[in-house]
Amino acid sequence: MSLDSVRAFFAAHAPDIPVMVTEQSSATVLLAAAAHGVEPGQIAKTLSLRIGDEVVLVVARGDARLDNRKARAALGGKPRMLGQEEVEALTGHPVGGVCPFGLATALKIYCDVSLKAFDEVVPAAGSTHSAVRIAPERMAALTGAEWVDVCQDPAAPGEAGVGPAEA
User: Fold this and answer.
1) Strand 79-81 vs strand 43-51: parallel, antiparallel, or unpaired?
2) Which domains does the chain have, with CATH numbers?
3) What is the rounded CA–CA span in Å between residue 148 and residue 150?
4) Residue in 67, 93, 66 with CA at minimum distance from that of residue 3
5) What is the pLDDT of residues 46-89, one digit of tens each?
6) Which of 15, 28, 43, 80 has the fewest CB atoms within 10 Å, counting from its CB?
7) What is the model's pTM?
8) Coil, strand or helix: which one is 147?
9) Residue 28 forms beta bridges with which residues?
């Protein structure tokens, strides 16, 4: 059903972008990178966060971690990861397939500036075996996302962030 909502989203808003379904799982950043032949940073992972009473999605490069200080400043509060059941209930997508497309609930979407390092990124597409290839700017435009700087530099170790690198 989740894959279907993403297919419907692209059919309505960007019919030129095909949804790719693979035999290999793309449920983690490393699996997705292997399945799609890209470096882990090029995977656009979607983090489901609670900021106070609001739930938001943050799309970031696969090898980046949230910087707690930056996230608090940009998002207006301390980010907390949602539990698996809440993620699926709010997004309509299973963990490992969460993306900013075809959502079950209207959520505020942010794209981290780390994505701009790539001409094309590969976010999930509603299941653990599906994805799309899309320019970061187009993804932000299609989803109404706001650009923010909330991640640590993936090349520089720093303060512990929120969420696993393979979320």
Assistant:
1) antiparallel
2) 2-148 (3.90.960.10)
3) 6
4) 93
5) 999 999 999 999 999 999 999 999 999 999 999 999 999 999 99
6) 15
7) 0.90
8) strand
9) none
